[in-house]
Design a protein that fits this description.
Layout: E1 4-12, H1 26-45, E2 49-54, H2 57-69, H3 79-104, E3 111-114, E4 117-119, E5 132-138, H4 140-150, E6 153-156, E7 162-166, E8 173-174, H5 177-185, E9 189-192, E10 198-202, E11 208-210, H6 217-227, E12 230-237, E13 242-244, E14 252-254, E15 256-258, H7 259-267, H8 276-288, E16 293-298, H9 302-307, E17 312-315, E18 327-328, E19 331-332
Helix pairs in contact: 1-3, 2-3, 6-8, 7-8
Length: about 350
């Protein structure tokens, strides 16, 4: 689909909703989300059409703990249902906070959350080797019982005990794509594909069914960004820039990566699969599919990242090297190259 010059998908990391030192009360999460919404409000006020997606790791983990603790009283829900619950929980927090920001700024726009299903392949190799830990820690005895009674795959995770692991398949399509796009085109600020979306597989009759898996939120986010015609994809995490040689004396931050450079670093193992790897992979996929720019940075650098003055920018191989922000959503500046720009906004 055609790409809109003012459209950006913002993928929020877990720290935008819950800090590592916090217990996870509703009040704590809502306060964090309010601060996050203020950053997003700046983007909207600057003229960007913003679509928000987010992680859900701590929240779905807590829901799973609640399921286990109350299993003798009420039936526990399967993982896909827990994921949908977390989308509703976090969508409510974000929807309310963003709506409050828009009212304060005098922007007459609505906010809506779309509970999103994401199609995965039933024969995805990830289902043969589950690796994604979820939920609480268990004793060996409890882990063996869960494996026998429910068929869970359990692994020992250090001294804290055993955890369930599930597959993390690749996202293929978003079921609610047209609904999300219609809302965006109507001027609605949309929250969608939370936690990577609820993973589903297609049946021969054209229907869908949930599967027990977890989709990486950044890989799902790039799929969302492509589907809504965004030119920009913003991955917000707990670091300001991507690092090369992380943890070594030669560690150094990177301001800019072309797709080719990013692919080379991924192949060389520079970015661990459990942390920065999926983020860089998501950035590369988005730009390879025609996106102008993906920036990876911290929440508080979000505005500057789209100005081109912060974060790590992943750009097309033919993007011009230019220290100035080449483009604004309210107009264009800078140099064009084969119809593609490394774009940003001026503020």
């Amino acid at each position: 689909m055609s790409r809109q010059s003012k459209r950006v998908v913002v993928a929020l990391g877990g720290n935008a909703i819950l800090q590592s030192h916090q217990r996870g009360t509703a009040a704590e999460q809502q306060a964090n989300v309010a601060a996050t919404a203020a950053q997003i409000g700046e983007l909207i006020e600057a003229g960007w059409e913003v679509i928000v997606t987010h992680g859900n790791g701590p929240q779905v983990g807590n829901i799973l703990i609640q399921n286990e603790e109350a299993a003798g009283i009420v039936p526990p829900m399967p993982l896909d249902v827990c994921g949908a619950q977390s989308q509703g929980l976090l969508g409510y927090f974000l929807q309310q906070a963003l709506g409050n920001q828009l009212r304060v700024r005098g922007i007459p726009r609505q906010v809506a959350t779309v509970i999103s299903q994401v199609v995965v392949a039933a024969d995805d190799p990830a289902f043969m080797s589950p690796t994604k830990p979820i939920g609480p820690f268990f004793t060996r005895e409890r882990a063996e019982r869960l494996k026998a009674e429910r068929g869970y795959m359990m692994v020992e995770v250090g001294p804290r005990g055993w955890r369930r692991v599930v597959a993390s398949p690749d996202p293929k399509a978003i079921v609610e794509r047209d609904t999300i796009l219609g809302l965006v085109q109507a001027g609605v600020v949309v929250v969608a594909v939370g936690g990577g979306g609820v993973p589903v597989t297609a049946d021969p009759e054209g229907g869908y069914r949930g599967v027990e898996a977890v989709i990486d939120k950044d890989l799902a986010g790039q799929r969302l960004a492509r589907d809504v015609g965004a030119t920009h994809f913003l991955i917000l995490t707990d670091v300001e820039r991507v690092m090369l040689d992380y943890g070594r004396p030669s560690q150094r931050p990177v301001d800019r990566l072309t797709v080719r450079e990013a692919r080379e670093h991924l192949a060389a193992g520079q970015f661990p699969p459990g942390s920065m790897g999926p983020k860089v992979e998501a950035a590369v996929r988005f730009v390879e599919a025609g996106g102008d720019l993906c920036a990876i940075t911290s929440l508080h650098q979000a505005v500057d990242a789209l100005r081109g003055t912060a974060g790590t920018r992943v750009v097309p191989d033919n993007a011009p090297v230019d220290s100035r922000p080449p483009c604004s959503p309210r107009g264009t500046t800078g140099h064009q190259n084969s119809g593609r720009r490394e774009t940003a906004f001026s503020g």
